[in-house]
Amino acid sequence: MEQKTLKEDGKTFVGFRSEVPRGGSWTVYPGLCKGCGFCIEVCPVAVISWSDRLGVYGTPSVEVDAEGCILCHQCERICPDAAIGVESRHGVVANREQQETAKDTGRNQS
Ligand code: SF4
Ligand code: SF4
Question: Sign of the C-alpha dihedral, residues 74, 80, 85, 90?
């Protein structure tokens, strides 16, 4: 995992970036995360979970199991505080069929 920084409103936030094998990256900025859990709820393949790193209000922030991420960007879009950044190389965005397949695979494994 690699660390990166984001400057916003004169403040600097540290981000934790994971390479996603499907061709991209997933980054969380705990200093922006308020622990609402929306990203955990929305992830179609259930690869986001609570983290030991604390967020802005002292509640857990989140982390990803990057192996399973399908780069659908839904967590990034739903986050009210822009605490997650998802980058897809090659402009790859998983379509609905890929999401359903990944979801089914996840169900079969659990
Ligand atoms: S980009 Fe999609 S699959 Fe990856 S962690 Fe976010 S919601 Fe889950
Ligand atoms: S949606 Fe954003 S603020 Fe809410 S838990 Fe996820 S990263 Fe944190």
Answer: positive
Which ligand places an atom closest to the C-alpha of 94?
A: 1
Whole-model pTM: value is 0.82
Nearest-CA residue for atom 2 of ligand 1: 72
Q: Which ligand has the minimum distance to the alpha carbon of residue 26? A: 1
Q: What are phi and psi of 104, to 5 degrees?
A: -60, -40
At the top level of CATH, the class of 2-109 is alpha beta
DSSP 106: H
pLDDT tens-digit map of 1-11: 788 888 888 88
pLDDT in tens, 30-88: 999 999 999 999 999 999 999 999 999 999 999 999 999 999 999 999 999 999 999 99
**Cα(37)–Cα(96) distance, integer angstroms:** 23
How many other β-carbons are positioned within 10 Å of the β-carbon of residue 19?
A: 14
Domain residue extents for the chain: 2-109
Q: Residue of the nearest CA to atom 8 in ligand 2?
A: 33
